Amino acid sequence: MAYKNLLLEVEEGIALLKINRPKVLNALDRETLMELQGALKELAQRGDVRVLIITGEGQKAFVAGADVAEMSEMGPQEAYEFSRLGHETLKMVEEFPCPVIAAVNGYALGGGLELALACDLIFASEGARLGLPEVTLGIFPGFGGTQRLPRLIGKARAKEVIFTGEMIEARRAYEMGIVNRVCPPERLLEEAKEVARRMAKNGPVALKMAKKVVERGYDVPLQEGEELEISAWANLFSTHDQKEGMRAFLEKRKATFKGE
Ligand code: HXC
């Protein structure tokens, strides 16, 4: 399907999704969020996608936030619906059935950083700047930032980011544990694709279930998380891929996974 504000391509199991509103630094308006939902559904339904990379079109920004022009005249009801739309969209990213890598190629601010936080890994280019500047606009993060950032880096450091609204350099974000790796700008997409290709070689059901167990297990007591792991792990033994993966190891050959 063709999208107005997104560019989408799939090559050898790696989907590359670009937010494409470079004139406004890829700001997320309602239309783009709706399109993002459509694209995520489309990609999840295709059988051939193993890893998804999300990035921003242009040299300057990943996503510079939710669209301030669109939000500026909203009343509380519209704001509620907008926040909910963002949450639902980012939940779809978080629950996407394959690994998702955010390739942060420039500003990742407000809703942009929140989008990246919903991805499984964040790679950032040197020179990228990340932050939650919402308080400078008289609001606070509304696409999950108040929840996902403290869970990722701890409450105190997240509060510093949220309360100051200041931007953080990519290296600092790496030191804080927000970003997995920092790459030279010209290498960013290639490094994301290299890691994606390495992940894509592995059993798709195992990846999907590992992601699910990490996500679901993160917010429940340890014992409950352990139970989730045991059940999901045991279920893998009803899949072709588990049999194939282990047989291939024993026969000293490369496994051919089917994703079932
Ligand atoms: C709408 C945006 C935008 C945004 C940039 N633009 N960010 N439009 N929403 N979030 C537009 C600018 O208005 C400008 O349009 C064009 O993109 C280029 O931006 P400039 O500001 O001219 O570029 P520059 O001087 O290089 O500054 C870059 C910047 C700055 C530092 C990233 O654009 C900036 O501070 N942007 C806003 C960042 C922000 O506050 N994000 C959080 C939003 S709130 P024109 O027409 O002038 O060329 C949020 C809430 C999420 O995300 C939760 C909601 C529920």
Structure description:
- The chain is of the alpha/beta class and 260 residues long.
- It folds into 2 domains: 6-200, 2-enoyl-CoA Hydratase, Chain A, domain 1 (Alpha-Beta Complex), CATH 3.90.226; 204-250, Orthogonal Bundle (Lyase 2-enoyl-coa Hydratase, Chain  A, domain 2), CATH 1.10.12.10.
- Helices cover 48% and strands 16% of the residues.
- It is built from 11 helices and 10 strands.
- The chain has helices at residues 30-45, 68-71, 76-94, 111-118, 145-153, 155-164, 170-176, 188-200, 204-218, 222-235, 240-250; strands at residues 6-11, 14-19, 51-56, 61-63, 100-104, 107-109, 121-125, 129-131, 168-169, 181-183.
- Strands 1-2-3-5-7-10 form a 6-stranded mixed beta sheet, sandwiched between helices.
- α9 packs antiparallel against α10 (222-235).
- The two termini are 26 Å apart.
- The mean pLDDT is 97.
- Bound molecules: hexanoyl-coenzyme A.
- Hexanoyl-coenzyme A is lined by residues 24-25, 27, 64-69, 82-83, 86, 107, 109-111, 133-134, 137, 141-143.
- Hexanoyl-coenzyme A (HXC) binds at residues 24-25, 27, 64-69, 82-83, 86, 107, 109-111, 133-134, 137, 141-143.
Overall tally of domains: 2
Average pLDDT metric: 97
CATH architecture label name of the largest domain: Alpha-Beta Complex
CATH superfamily of the largest domain: 2-enoyl-CoA Hydratase, Chain A, domain 1
Which sequence of strands runs across the widest sheet?
Answer: 1-2-3-5-7-10
Topology as H/E string?
A: EEHEEHHEEHEEHHEHEHHHH
